[in-house]
Write a structure and sequence with these properties.
By secondary structure, this protein is mainly α. The chain has a single domain, classed as Orthogonal Bundle (Arc Repressor Mutant, subunit A), CATH 1.10.10. It has 4 helices and 4 strands. A two-stranded antiparallel ribbon has the order 1-2. A two-stranded antiparallel sheet has the order 3-4. Helix 1 packs across helix 2 and helix 2 packs across helix 3. The longest helix has 28 residues.
Length: about 110
């Protein structure tokens, strides 16, 4: 038996807007410089990736990415400064919660060691 820690953020209406999927998407955008390439690397439809980003941005009240349209020079995406900070804080919070779970699990379930 194991216990898993998942950090999911919900808006005021109780709708999920951020968790591991959007976190991985933003990390991939940072690595690839493109929402489309990030979505492709995750096996996700571009339209779904945009929907995830738009939902998170609406809930947070600030843009996570700055996107430029394609064309002759090609398009691309970068994380905004607020997007980078949100991602950093989310990952730090998630990691701290995972560490707390690892410390607490044996305390509450000693027979599972």
């Amino acid at each position: 038996m194991t216990a898993a820690t998942k950090i999911i953020f919900f808006d005021d209406a109780g709708e999920k807007f951020f968790g591991e999927g959007p976190c991985r998407l933003l990390t991939a955008v940072e690595e690839t410089g493109s929402v489309r390439a990030a979505a492709l690397s995750m096996g996700m439809a571009y339209s779904k990736a945009l929907k995830l980003l738009n939902r998170a941005e609406a809930a947070l009240g600030f843009p996570l990415t700055m996107r430029t349209a394609g064309g002759r020079d090609g398009g691309g995406s970068v994380l905004t400064p607020q997007g980078k900070e949100w991602l950093r804080r989310y990952e730090a919070y998630r990691d701290a919660c995972i560490q707390a779970n690892r410390r607490l699990y044996p305390e509450f379930f000693p027979e599972q060691r």
